[in-house]
């Protein structure tokens, strides 16, 4: 059964023409289930009807046959989103006879909804002449087939194929950074090709051997990751190919041959080309067809390994005009490599709204859409629109859509000018309640962060970027220089520097960490406490950098228990004593922790005496509280930053901090979100840290809000059951107070 299922789905997935593909589907399903009739209907939401797309067994010559959503058994399956199994269809009260279909001969009916992400995309039906209930096996076959088909249909529709809508189809991704851009899509297709690698020699054989090993390990890790990714999907060829690659890469003969070439003085990429070509030629000469075909696989493996050999050295094609950057997986280094003035928007196939790349896009003020199903080869060079508010992408849009979006961009520009007029004014509510506005910095590669006149200091300086953009750990001197530049930029203000928080979606290229659950793994303080050497170097660099202005606070990420805190504080003290030896003027920094692992919410009474402040990381706190990966586009709708439980925990943190007189700031993305910031004020928070691009907007909102209104909103939010109820309430508040442009300037 399983193999039959797979075969059907694979056959269908290979065909681009919708009618042809669905004809194959119904024919194959009849054969597999030994039934006389199989029909597929797709839903046309615009017209509220199901359209017969293909059938075997009914009368249908490609003419249009529709069933309204409220009609007949097929409509019932669509509405109820449940399978319907009947021995005698005509006896069911919802039965409706469609004479043009010639259904009279069939008695039994089994219909299964085709559901993707809670949405019924269509209905798959089998029918038989004998009046009998379909058995459990048949029912589960049809349900499984529908589930797999749903993925194919959703994918095809997201690419603009198989769509029944008359509107130009937008490719739907996850809105990750607000704003709108119109421009040319740009994808770096300049990956080096194995066939183009030229003979090159090396003097440093050892370095070359090491480089090769690191690349092989990185490739193996990538194959494991890809294998896992495809595991739940339908393409068994994809699975097999990654197994084969892994097997080949682990083959001692291949490794020895590569080594031998390098021993002779060949550079690693040149060694790779020679070995791969010799292997693939050997396969190509074999008489067995199967083995002959493996020649291509070996070349593909070589190409992939070449990618890892060049990965961190490969220079991106220079970008010399404004573009919409498209990437398979957006990384900080990729973003950093394109001049800001040329970055109209970014689109990433992987990731979700709180992936670090998304946060970075927001920090840069660049519209971003994540988790978009784009065909990379197809989009490069095409014109289109990226809507960072809705997550929609339009490829080669028509004039009407272009006009709508041009208007939207004009409104955005106007709003920008309005909010920036008040940037230098104090952040206080209409009733004069002051709010501390701080900056989140550091994710950008630019160490020269703009001195933002509208802020009271830096609430979160992420130190990871310098570690991510290198081939090795940065030295104490390098770190010192970088931290000093930041601390000197804010001589009279507090700068909160966070110690290294790698792991999760921030892996160091030179220290691959492979884990099943990276967000629950070796992250943040867990990593640095296991490497006190790295931690001490970093803290010493920070302390030395703070000597001139004594404006440093140190923030510890991912603390999940008091022992970690105590151990980290001990190491900071050790570093402090070291620096004190040669710089007696250095002051002990204030120390705080991130509240981002839920355990720490309960431990506030215990830590209150041990730390000077806490900073709430709502990005991770939400992820851990709701058990939802912040980086996974499949569960992006479960990641609700205004989930009622998040509201409750934020209230609890606020109350506990007040009780124990512990200063608290919010540095997660919620603080820079228009709805989030106002709710946080209503909950009692008075210190918010956010990306530069949000400061002016949030300040404007604060300055035009009455605290008592916000308190009422927060109170109502705390009584609500659903996250979307909270968003709706906030949306209504924004419309009522003329703030609508902050969440969606115009369209929809
Ligand atoms: C957070 O988790 O909310 C946070 C501010 O840290 P990061 O996004 O860097 O994990
Ligand atoms: Mg965090």
UniProtKB/TrEMBL annotation:
Gene3D superfamilies: 3.30.450.40, Phosphoenolpyruvate-binding domains, Phosphohistidine domain, PtsI, HPr-binding domain
CC terms in the record's Gene Ontology section: cytoplasm
Needed cofactors: Mg(2+)
Enzyme Commission code: 2.7.3.9
Top-tier EC class: transferase
Pfam families: GAF, PEP-utilisers_N, PEP-utilizers, PEP-utilizers_C
Chain ranges of the GAF domain: 17-163
Reaction(s) the record says it catalyses: L-histidyl-[protein] + phosphoenolpyruvate = N(pros)-phospho-L-histidyl-[protein] + pyruvate
Gene Ontology molecular function: kinase activity; metal ion binding; phosphoenolpyruvate-protein phosphotransferase activity
Places the protein is found: Cytoplasm
Record keywords, A-Z: Cytoplasm, Kinase, Magnesium, Metal-binding, Phosphotransferase system, Pyruvate, Sugar transport, Transferase, Transport
Homology family: Belongs to the PEP-utilizing enzyme family.
UniProt-recorded name of the protein: phosphoenolpyruvate--protein phosphotransferase
Gene: ptsP
């Amino acid at each position: 059964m399983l193999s039959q299922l797979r075969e059907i789905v694979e056959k269908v997935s290979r065909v681009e023409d919708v009618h042809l593909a669905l004809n194959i589907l119904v024919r194959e399903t009849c054969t597999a289930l030994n039934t006389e009739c199989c029909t597929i209907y797709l839903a046309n939401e615009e017209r509220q009807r199901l359209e017969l797309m293909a059938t075997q067994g009914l009368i249908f010559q490609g003419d249009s046959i529709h069933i309204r959503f409220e009609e007949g058994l097929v409509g019932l399956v669509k509405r109820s989103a449940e399978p319907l199994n009947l021995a005698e269809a005509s006896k069911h009260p919802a039965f409706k006879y469609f004479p043009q279909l010639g259904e009279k001969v069939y008695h039994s009916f089994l219909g299964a909804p085709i559901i993707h992400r809670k949405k019924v995309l269509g209905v798959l039906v089998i029918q038989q002449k004998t009046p009998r209930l379909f058995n459990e096996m048949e029912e589960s076959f049809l349900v499984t087939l529908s589930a797999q088909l749903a993925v194919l249909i959703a994918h095809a529709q997201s690419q603009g194929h198989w769509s029944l809508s008359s509107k130009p189809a937008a490719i739907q991704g996850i809105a990750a950074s607000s704003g709108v851009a119109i421009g040319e899509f740009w994808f770096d297709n300049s990956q080096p090709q194995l066939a183009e690698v030229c003979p090159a020699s090396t003097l440093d054989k050892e370095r070359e051997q090491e480089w090769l090993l690191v690349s092989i390990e990185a490739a193996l890790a990538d194959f494991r990751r890809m294998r896992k990714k495809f595991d739940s999907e339908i393409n068994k060829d994809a699975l097999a190919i990654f197994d084969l690659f892994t097997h080949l890469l682990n083959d001692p003969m291949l490794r020895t041959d590569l080594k031998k070439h390098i021993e002779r003085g060949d550079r690693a990429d040149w060694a790779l080309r020679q070995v791969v070509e010799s292997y693939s030629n050997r396969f190509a000469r074999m008489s067995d067809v199967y083995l002959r075909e493996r020649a291509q696989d070996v070349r593909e493996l070589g190409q992939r390994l070449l990618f890892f050999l060049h990965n961190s050295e490969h220079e991106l094609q220079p970008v010399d005009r404004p573009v919409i950057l498209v990437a398979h997986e957006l990384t900080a280094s990729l973003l950093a490599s394109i001049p800001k003035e040329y970055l109209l928007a970014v689109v990433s196939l992987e990731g979700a709204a709180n992936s670090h790349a998304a946060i970075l896009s927001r920090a840069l003020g660049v519209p971003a859409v994540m988790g978009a199903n784009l065909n990379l080869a197809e989009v490069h060079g095409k014109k289109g629109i990226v809507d960072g508010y809705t997550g929609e992408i339009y490829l080669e849009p028509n004039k009407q859509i272009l006009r709508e979006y041009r208007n939207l961009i004009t409104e955005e520009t106007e709003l920008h000018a309005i909010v920036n007029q008040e940037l230098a004014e104090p952040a206080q509510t209409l009733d004069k309640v002051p709010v501390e506005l701080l900056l989140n910095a550091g994710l950008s590669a630019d160490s020269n962060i703009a001195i933002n006149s509208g802020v009271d200091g830096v609430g979160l300086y992420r130190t990871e970027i310098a570690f991510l953009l290198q081939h090795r750990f940065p030295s104490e001197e390098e770190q010192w220089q970088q931290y000093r530049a930041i601390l000197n930029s804010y001589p009279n203000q507090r700068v909160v520097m966070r110690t290294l928080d790698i792991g999760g979606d921030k892996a160091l290229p030179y220290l691959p960490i492979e884990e099943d659950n990276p967000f629950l793994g070796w992250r943040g303080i867990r990593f640095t406490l296991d490497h006190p050497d790295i931690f001490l170097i970093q803290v010493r660099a920070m302390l030395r950098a703070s000597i001139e202005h004594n404006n440093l606070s140190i923030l510890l990420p991912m603390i999940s228990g008091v022992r970690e805190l105590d151990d980290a504080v001990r190491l900071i003290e050790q570093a402090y004593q070291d620096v004190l030896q040669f710089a007696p003027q250095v002051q002990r920094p204030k120390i705080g922790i991130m509240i981002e692992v839920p355990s720490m919410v309960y431990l506030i009474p215990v830590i209150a005496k041990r730390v000077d402040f806490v900073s709430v990381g709502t990005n991770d706190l939400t992820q851990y509280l709701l058990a939802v990966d912040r980086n996974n586009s499949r569960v992006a709708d479960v990641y609700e930053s205004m989930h009622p439980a998040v509201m409750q925990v934020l209230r609890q943190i606020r109350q506990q901090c007040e009780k124990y007189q512990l200063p608290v700031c919010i540095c997660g993305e919620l603080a820079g979100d228009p709805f989030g910031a106002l709710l946080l004020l209503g909950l009692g928070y008075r210190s918010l840290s956010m990306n530069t691009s949000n400061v002016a907007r949030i300040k404007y909102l604060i300055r035009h809000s009455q605290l008592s209104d916000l308190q009422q909103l927060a109170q109502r939010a705390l009584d609500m059951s659903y996250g979307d109820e909270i968003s709706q309430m906030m949306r209504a508040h924004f419309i009522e107070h003329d703030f609508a442009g902050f969440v969606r300037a115009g369209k929809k």
